[in-house]
Amino acid sequence: MTSRSGDSDDDGPPAEPDRPVCALCGTRAEGPQPTWTFSVENGARRYYCERCSREHLRAIEGRLDAQWW
Hey, CA dihedral for 12, 18, 19, 21, is it positive or negative? Predict the structure, then answer.
């Protein structure tokens, strides 16, 4: 099957991936953030910046929901 000119699945440039936002302080990631952490609470994925992750490390490791921090 041949395609006609103008028929393409390409809708332009690729969309920018969603940048995580810290669930505690609201900091938005500038790019890839390997030091950020995430947890799944009540089925929702929550991201935490490096600063908040460090401040709440024991609670994160203890798998406590953020409401207990």
Answer: positive
Q: Taking the model in full, what pTM does it have? A: 0.59
Three-state SS annotation for the chain: CCCCCCCCCCCCCCCCCCCCEECCCCCECCCCCCCCEEEEECCEEEEECHHHHHHCHHHHHCCCCHHHC
The per-residue pLDDT for range 16-69, each reduced to its tens digit, is: 557 889 999 999 998 777 788 888 888 888 899 999 988 888 877 777 666 666
Tokens of 37: 């952490």
Domain boundaries, the chain: 20-69
